[in-house]
Write a structure and sequence with these properties.
Layout lengths: L2 E3 L9 H7 L8 E3 L7 H6 L5 H13 L5 H11 L6 E5 L2 E5 L9 H15 L5 E6 L3 H10 L5 E8 L5 H8 L5 E6 L3 H12 L2 H6 L2 E3 L5 H4 L4 H12 L7 E5 L4 H11 L6 E6 L4 H8 L23 H7 L4 H7 E5 L2 H15 L5 H13 L6 E5 L7 H8 L7 H6 L6 E4 L3 H10 L2
Parallel strand pairs: 4-12, 5-6, 5-8, 6-7, 7-13, 9-10, 9-12, 10-11
Antiparallel strand pairs: 1-2, 3-4
Length: about 425
């Protein structure tokens, strides 16, 4: 399978090059030259397959031309050492829980898969992974790559804009993980990473790759759990295609769901749930994509003012706003609504949401039409936002033991400005 750049000015790349480079030479995002279709027999038997079996079949379709089945299936099974279950919480609403991995966030799937794929392609030379995070990406990537020989990870995060527990998950690890506390917002962190990739002199001195959802090895494996979730509904006797609602920040997660649908997964339509950072929602209303500085909200992992994966969605639907509108609707959930939604869902169903899941639940509940069934993603465990959730619910939130262990460590981070020259100087000094 070959991969091309969304900007159309870079040479096509093999899977190995796309994974190792992260970003194309023209600053575009890599897209697969074609999206493979899964056969009818797969969908007919999907309800009788377990999560790993489903995921191996999906991985074969995308990566099977480049990686022998034995190696690919080992990578998939090592990645999915935990479940991503789907539960019914209301008559027409199911929740896809994506917080059962090591760092209790949905990004564990993509980060663990990418770490193993990068190790598979490694030729022994040191690789430097750059990752910008608004919360959960940093912890998932840091823990996914922790101790991987020949790989160093630099996690850039906005000072004062991630939860204390999230910060502990990537600043206390040490070893091959370096946390960089940037005096700015997530978009500043993301810009630093992109500028480093475009710095030909820097790249001549050190091998760089990205573990953000701009990397195809990060976002494509996230499609696994959408197939599995739809299979769960079939096991529960739901035959019609569901509506899928995804809390969306950098749009990698919903992009994976859209790719799953293009591979043949029956989905009625999609809802992209934004917090008050409503760039995509505004695009759906106007047809004009206008990035702007992000603002801080309760759902901090979605505080993105220029979502990178919009470029992939734009490409996927022929660079046509009407085509996108036919498949995806949008919703904006502000902080006050997040608070009310967490309270209401707990009172009505007994289910405790985190702020990001609250955006998904609210958008789905408001957006479902009569007779439709829907799935929303609960992307992180509520304990990762313990202070926020307890202040809203007036109830204690139990902290899982593996999360509590992170909080016992000592913070190790390097403070940097948002200026690229400072970031570059630090990287050079680390060689």
């Amino acid at each position: 399978m070959m991969y091309y750049s969304t900007n159309g000015k870079a040479p096509e790349a093999t899977l190995k090059k796309a994974v190792q480079n992260g970003l194309a030479e023209d600053r575009g995002l890599y897209m697969p030259r074609r999206i493979p279709q899964l056969p009818y027999s797969f969908f007919a038997g999907m309800a009788d397959m377990d999560f790993q079996e489903i995921s191996c079949a999906v991985a074969d379709a995308f990566f099977g031309e480049d990686i022998p089945a034995e190696d690919l299936h080992r990578i998939v099974r090592e990645t999915l050492s935990f479940d991503c279950p789907t539960y019914q919480i209301e008559e027409n609403i199911w929740v896809l829980e994506l917080f059962h991995g090591p760092t209790l966030a949905f990004k564990d799937v993509g980060a663990r898969f990418m770490a193993r794929l990068l190790a598979y392609f490694s030729d022994g030379s040191p690789v430097n992974v750059l990752v910008a995070t608004s919360g959960d990406t940093g912890s998932a990537v840091a823990n996914g790559f922790l101790g991987v020989e020949g790989v160093r990870v630099f996690v850039l995060y906005p000072k004062g804009k991630v939860s204390p527990i999230q910060e502990c998950q990537f600043t206390t690890l040490g070893q091959n993980i370096t946390a960089l506390e940037i005096d700015g917002c997530f978009d500043d962190c993301q810009a630093l990473v992109k500028n480093a990739f475009m710095d030909t002199e820097l790249r001549a001195r050190m091998t760089l790759t990205s573990a953000n959802s701009i990397n195809v090895a990060r976002f494509l494996p996230q499609s696994f759990y959408y197939f599995n979730s739809c299979a769960s509904l079939r096991r529960a006797g739901v035959s019609e295609p569901p509506v899928i609602c995804v809390p969306s920040g950098n749009f990698g997660n919903i992009c994976a769901a859209l790719f799953a649908a293009e591979m043949g997964l029956p989905v009625r339509r999609f809802i992209a749930a934004n917090n008050s950072n409503s760039v995509f929602y505004d695009f759906l209303q106007t047809g004009v994509y206008t990035p702007r500085p992000s603002i801080q909200t309760l759902a901090n992992a979605m505080d993105v003012g220029d979502p990178s994966n919009f470029a992939r969605i734009w490409e996927l639907y022929g660079r046509n706003a009407d085509n996108i509108r036919q498949r995806i609707s949008g919703a904006v959930v502000d902080d006050k609504t997040i608070e009310r939604t967490i309270q209401q869902c707990l009172e009505d169903t007994g289910y405790l949401l985190d702020p990001h899941g609250a955006c998904g639940y609210r958008a789905l509940k408001d957006g479902l039409k009569p007779g439709e069934k829907g799935i929303f993603c609960e992307t992180a465990h509520p304990a990762k936002f313990k202070e926020k959730v307890e202040a809203i619910t007036w109830q204690d939130v139990d902290v899982p033991e593996r999360l509590a262990e992170f909080m016992k460590g000592t913070k190790q981070s390097v403070a940097l400005s948002r200026n690229y020259s400072d970031f570059r100087d630090f990287l050079v000094s680390s060689i």
